[in-house]
Amino acid sequence: MDLKLAGKKAVITGGSRGIGRAIAELFADEGCDVGICARSEGAILATVDALKAKGVNAFGGPADVQDGAMLTEWMSAAAKSLGGIDILIANASGFGLTLDDEGWRQAFDIDILGSFHAIDAALPYLEQSDAASIVSISSVAAIESFGGVRPYNSIKAALITYMSNLANDLAPKGIRANTVSPGTIYFEGGVWHQRELEQPDIYKAALAKNPLGRMGTAEEVAQATVFLASPAAGFISGTNLIVDGALTQRVQF
Questions:
Q1: Residue 97 lies in a domain
Q2: Is 125 a catalytic residue?
Q3: Least packed by Cβ within 10 Å: which of 151, 175, 187, 230?
């Protein structure tokens, strides 16, 4: 299938590692010029070099999604370097695993405000695109009880609602907005890799819950995200695409 992405311009927040980097690399493989931001400058430089090696234009720089002014400045620089923005992937996440003020604040500031800042900064450029698309990365923890009471779960649910409402609001401007919700995703340096090393019993229990007998990969989440963001999914907006290998047990309608 031709995703019709060649020559498009995609930007990804939190794009230097894990799912974000896999998304950036797949966009580049499809012929997209790619911009990424993250907080680690060294990881950004390595990722930009890898993207350029694929034969596309790539731009990267440090930006904290909690800082609206900083992110707006970065988005402007990315749009100038790439020649516009067609696609925004709001991937940065604060996790917010502790059930205290700091945990709630971190999850809200990065996942909700960070997504709002990214979308707000990208909108002037998306409005000029003939294939504008926004995808946020949520989690199956948003749709089913998972891992106990954590800010992460509730904030990720709020993100899905925000994107659904945004889809309706932006549709008259020709801008699509969707969400991808991964299940248990394993990659080196990721949460489940750390659990495997530090809390093997928790890791084994989570692995056993996967009907496919394994956890997902960052590349599998990237494939779903890139399709949903692409012109090939041009009539899909306001949806939450679950990428979890049948981990969640609810019936979807």
A1: yes
A2: no
A3: 187
